[in-house]
Write a structure and sequence with these properties.
about 90 residues; mainly beta; 7-stranded antiparallel β-sheet
């Protein structure tokens, strides 16, 4: 899946299992709440030692849809715009 890269910061909350769950995304100095997570999965090669990525598709409160991904265990989040806000079309 492709998208437009954004300069953004992902705000997370740790769940009981110790996994970081995105709760908001900061774009241009503004905080947008994650309304819901559409899909969450791990991606990576089947061979041992390969890079595994945590991938999450989310919808923000303004209607934008994003793909958030990071290398595990502690890589930075990469933010891709999948669908712009309906108000900005």
């Amino acid at each position: 899946m492709t998208g437009v890269p954004l300069i953004a910061r992902v705000e997370c909350r740790s769940e009981a299992r110790g996994e970081d769950r995105p709760v908001a995304v900061w774009i241009g100095g503004r905080r947008f709440v994650v309304e819901h997570l559409d899909q969450e999965r791990l991606e990576g090669p089947p061979e041992a030692g390969g890079t595994v990525r945590h991938v999450v598709s989310v919808a923000l409160e303004d209607g934008r849809r994003l793909r958030l991904e990071r290398r595990l265990p502690e890589g930075p989040w990469r933010v891709l715009l999948l669908e712009p806000s309906p108000r900005n079309r």
